[in-house]
Structures are given as structure tokens and as C-alpha cells.
Design a protein that fits this description.
- By secondary structure, the chain is mainly alpha-helical.
- It is about 40% helix and about 5% strand.
- It is elongated and about 110 Å long.
- The termini are far apart.
């Protein structure tokens, strides 16, 4: 009894353009699945048998045959990997947008005074307390903020006076600069010396490339510093009367 030999499987005849395209994919493809499939097809087009390809590529015979049959039917589309969708997201897009929005707020906006900025742990606790999510890990929260382009950035703080009459006093002082008295001089006195408001950097969650910018000083044009001093009273050393000096002598 003579058993017929199983016919070998080869890729269909390729055009010159298809051959050049396969060679380019085999040199430049970054996806390992696409690269391996392209090499299998290219070797088959060069006359290599399925057994030879499996020996060189260290893959199974069925894999080589499946790749060749798929390329013969679908062409270059068969080289692309077909990824599964994976497990569905446990947190929907609407909730993710809400999380990013809350991260950009200040704890003070929620009447929280124990801390001034959100850490990942504190933000996760707040989201659970507000029933935004039933549970969330810090790593999941980090990925949600990163996907929403919300990053941890340096900010500048706002400097403002707590004096309720600050504005009226400021306008009175600025009026002296603008319209100084004709028969006198405007003298500025500061017991601490000339002070300049400097921004102090902080941290907060903000949209990527959009840091929080809060003005911390003001522009002063055509102005200078005037220094004033007051007399310093020096106590003289005690001088003994002549009689006391004689008695002591």
C-alpha cells in the first residue's frame, strides 16, 4: 500500500511590489507578531517548505500553514495581529472625567482643612466617601489621571491681605504717589525694610501643560524706594558728682 505524500503548502505567487513590501516589513516592523508572519510568508515565497520554516523559526507546522493560508486569502491584512478587546473597564468614561475634575479642585473646596493638596491616597478616600466609585486603588487612580492628561505640577500661590479695609487704604496710598502734595514729600516707612512679594511654589493636579498660574505681586511703574529713619536715643553713662568722687577716692 502506497501512502500519498501530503502536498506542501506554499504562498501564492507574489508580484515585485509585494516582495519589496514584505522585505521592508521584515526589516522595519516593530510588532513581533507582524514581523514573524512577514518572515514566514517571505520564506515561503522563496521556496522554503513548511518543515524548513518551522525548523528555522521554531514554530509549529500548524502556525506556518495558518499564516500562509491567511495571507493567500487576505493579503497583507493577515500580517496584522488581531488583538482582543480585553476586560471591559470597571470605571466608565463619565466617572473618569468626574475623577479628573475633582482632582483639579482644592480640598478647601470640599471644606477639608486638614491638608491643602490631594495625594493619591487622600483623593482615593475622598472619591469613595463621595460615592463616586465603590473602590479604587492608587495605581488605577494614577492611570485615570494620566489618561485624562492631569499631572502633578508646581503652582504659585496667591498673596492677599486679610484687612477688610485693604482696598481703600491701597487707593489712598497710591493717590499720594500719583498726586504728591506740592509743598511736601511722600515718605514711605517700612519697619521691616523694603519687602517684595515673592511667589511660593506649591503642588496640585492640573491639566497637562496647563499649570496653575496665580499672580503673587503687582507691577510698579515709575516708582522708587524712599528710606526714612527715626532718631535713635543713646543713653549716656552716669557721671558721679564731685563729692561722690572724692568720697570714693
Amino acid at each position: 500500500m502506497v501512502v500519498a505524500r501530503k502536498p506542501s503548502v506554499f504562498v501564492r505567487s507574489l508580484t515585485m511590489e509585494e516582495g519589496r513590501r514584505l522585505q521592508k516589513i521584515s526589516r522595519t516592523a516593530k510588532d513581533p507578531i507582524k514581523l514573524r508572519r512577514a518572515i514566514v510568508v517571505l520564506m515561503s515565497a522563496q521556496g522554503q517548505s513548511v518543515k524548513d520554516i518551522t525548523s528555522l523559526m521554531q514554530v509549529s507546522d500548524d502556525y506556518v500553514r495558518d499564516v500562509i493560508h491567511a495571507f493567500n486569502e487576505q493579503g497583507f491584512e493577515a500580517l496584522h495581529p488581531k488583538w482582543n478587546g480585553g476586560r471591559p473597564k470597571a470605571i466608565d468614561e463619565q466617572t473618569r472625567e468626574k475623577i479628573c475634575l475633582i482632582a483639579r479642585t482644592s480640598p478647601a473646596d470640599w471644606k477639608i482643612t486638614a491638608f491643602s493638596t490631594w495625594s493619591l491616597a487622600k483623593l482615593a478616600e475622598h472619591l469613595i466617601a463621595q460615592k463616586i466609585v465603590p473602590a479604587i486603588s492608587r495605581e488605577t487612580l494614577r492611570r485615570i489621571l494620566r489618561d485624562g492628561k492631569v499631572t502633578w505640577q508646581a503652582t504659585t500661590t496667591w498673596k492677599a491681605s486679610t484687612d477688610p479695609d485693604f482696598l481703600s487704604k491701597m487707593h489712598t496710598i497710591l493717590a499720594l504717589y500719583d498726586t504728591p502734595p506740592a509743598d511736601g514729600r511722600v515718605v514711605c516707612v517700612d519697619e521691616f525694610g523694603p519687602l517684595n512679594l515673592q511667589p511660593r511654589k506649591g503642588k496640585s493636579w492640573r491639566p497637562q501643560t496647563h499649570p496653575l498660574r496665580l499672580r503673587a505681586t503687582y507691577h510698579r511703574y515709575d516708582s522708587g524706594d524712599a528710606h526714612a529713619c527715626r532718631p535713635r536715643f543713646v543713653q549716656r553713662p552716669n557721671v558721679l558728682p564731685d563729692s561722690s568722687a572724692q568720697a570714693r577716692g
